Amino acid sequence: MSLEKWANYLKNMPPPPRLAPLLNPKIDALIHPLAEKKKTLYIADALIHTIVEQFDSLVMSLYKASKYNLTKMLGGEKSG
Question: For residue 78, is it within any domain?
């Protein structure tokens, strides 16, 4: 498949699903019971939630960059 076809395919993809709504409850269910016994685990909980949220932001940024700029970078569409 040519680069232009890949670019068009990526441009027409729907936005990626967010992981945070799926993973955050599982993280809480796993860590919170343990953190009741060892309070420092709440720090790990906060860090893991931060990583998940940042990953979601990175994925969305990559999606938007490819959707709006990839064909322009490949020379297939004029800015304007």
Answer: no
